[in-house]
Amino acid sequence: MRESHHAESFVSPVWKRYTSIVAERAEGAYIYSADGTRYLDFTCGIAVTNTGHCHPRVVRAIQEQAAKLLHGQVNIVYHRPLLELVEELRTIVPPPIDCFFFSNSGAEAVEGAVKLARQATGRPNIIVFQGSFHGRTALAMALTTSKTIYRAGYQPLPAGIFVAPYPYAYRYGWDAEQTLAFCLRELEVLLKTQTAPAETAAILVEPVLGEGGYVVPPPGFLRELRRLCDKHAILLIADEIQCGFGRTGKWFAVEHSGVVPDIMVMAKGLASGLPLSCVAARRELMERWTPGSHGGTYGGNAVACAAAVATVRVIREEGLLENAQRQGTLLLHRLRELQREFPLLGDVRGLGLMVGAEFTTPDGEPDPVTARQVIERCLERQLLLLTCGTYDNVVRWMPPLIVTAEQIETAAEIFRQSLSLTFNP
Ligand SMILES: Cc1ncc(COP(=O)(O)O)c(C=O)c1O
Q1: Least confident of 128-132, 295-299, 340-344, 357-361
Q2: Ligand 1 atom nearest to CA at 239
Q3: 241 pocket-lining for ligand 1 (C-beta < 6 Å)
Q4: Alpha carbon of 410 to those of 39, 271, 307: distances in Å?
Q5: Within 13 Å and on the Cβ side, how many CA atoms surround 383?
Q6: pLDDT confidence of 5, banded at 50, 70, 90?
Q7: DSSP-derived secondary structure for 309-335
């Protein structure tokens, strides 16, 4: 076999790379590199391995299913893992959502949700929010506004997408109430000036902003979106791809507000690492989606569905939602202590185990340089963290839902050392 450093040059550089670790195996909250180094993984493969790496029950379900049926194409047959998965999902999505379509990636499912909304309403336009990330396919790029890098060189993108402000209070420098009032006013203006309600199929929103900066909106935000959607018969689509599947301490982040969306999109944590995504809606809505007008060869793959069934059961039976709440509270507490010690850690925010730490320069500007230095110092101490945000100045914390208090304490201590080295060299 060729040396790995040689093989790396044949991997497309379009994949931006945070580390040069060659991962050999992984277990729970740890990744082991080929040279035997153990890393505490607080990236979870970007919020995917919520049950921890290679959870034994998920691995067993995959192995058993692989030996029985790898691919039972959904246009041709039903298979048991698919039928078990829809039964499991029915127990965790907010009623009256009760009908499910599967594809492979998050972007594919977002596109599916938008296609469903357009056919179900007969309207063309979609409203998204500033800072949103919904994927990298053509339509998903048009729905994405977190950074220009996701669009530059690919424009023009599909039309019919309109952007409203997201209530990111720290960015605006206002309190939650003022920020919310501003954003709702601007949304009303958008409906008056750019996309009339009668032309608007859906409002697509991340209940907690992911790639755009791990921003938790004020509690009234989703309720007001729901009210506006009901008033104008616009569909509300919740993109739960990053914030769903237990990440915020509830199955889905919308549950914190009590709001029920018309359509929910999930992926990432759904199958603990196998590619699977889902569009969920009421059956009555799904029945307005012309059969055959959407689909795909691999969607609802038998092995991926078996992994998802095991994932739901593990999260439920091992109390991982409760653990996410408990450990998330501890993590926020520790980071807020560090914020008092290091004031350039401008904002610490989060819900459950979706926590952001935003760096700001002394004159109040976004500070990506410090964020980068800090996560590099964490990496040197075998803690994996990522950044996010339009300016890449937010360190995002997304440990697995199985994380222990001891692992949180270890990570917080490594972060403290890294902050100390960065600010007091
Ligand atoms: C909120 C959200 N939506 C959509 C996507 C796109 O998912 P995928 O990368 O699987 O296409 C992501 C991925 O990071 C995401 O965080």
Answers
A1: 340-344
A2: 1
A3: yes
A4: 12, 28, 30
A5: 25
A6: low
A7: HHHHHHHHHTTHHHHHHHHHHHHHHHH
| Percent of the chain residues past pLDDT 90, beyond the cut | 97
Given a cut of 70, is residue 3 above it in pLDDT? no
The closest residue, in CA terms, to atom 16 on ligand 1 is 242
Q: Provide the CATH topology of domain 4-54+319-423.
A: Aspartate Aminotransferase, domain 1 (3.90.1150)
> Edge-to-edge strands of the sheet including 394-397?
345-351, 354-359, 394-397, 386-388
**211 in contact with ligand 1, CB cutoff 6 A:** yes
Is the pLDDT assigned to residue 207 strictly greater than 60? yes
Res 6: pLDDT: 82
**Which residues lie closer than 8 Å to 356 by C-beta, 6 or more apart?**
213, 214, 215, 347, 348, 349, 350, 388, 389, 394, 395, 396, 397
- Compute the distance between CA of residue 300 and CA of residue 193 in angstroms, rounded to an integer: 41
Q: Does residue 269's CB lie within 6 angstroms of at least one atom of ligand 1?
A: no
Extract the tokens encoding 176: 């939650």
Q: Is any atom of ligand 1 closer than 6 Å to the C-beta of 275?
A: no
Mean pLDDT of 120-146: 98
| Paired tokens of 424 | 């007091």
**Nearest-angstrom CA–CA distance, 5 and 22:** 10
Please give the structure tokens belonging to residue 385: 């963290």
Q: How far does the centroid of ligand 1 lie from the alpha carbon of residue 105, in Å?
A: 8
Angle, helix 302-317 to helix 320-341, in steps of 10 degrees? 70
What percentage of the chain carries pLDDT values higher than 70?
99
- Top mutation candidate among 110, 268, 276 for ligand 1, by most atoms within 8 Å of CB: 268
Using the mean position of ligand 1's atoms as its centre, give its distance from the Cα of residue 147 in Å. 14
How high is the mean pLDDT of the chain? Answer: 97
Angle 401-82-284 from CA coordinates, rounded to 5° = 100
- Rounded to whole angstroms, the Cα distance separating 321 from 421 reads 35
Pick the CATH number of 56-317 from 3.40.640.10, 1.10.150.130, 3.40.50.300, 1.10.10.10: 3.40.640.10
State how beta strands 161-164 and 354-359 pair.
unpaired
In the chain, domain spans: 4-54+319-423, 56-317
CB 106 less than 6 A from any atom of ligand 1: yes
pLDDT tens digits for range 308-324: 999 999 999 999 999 99
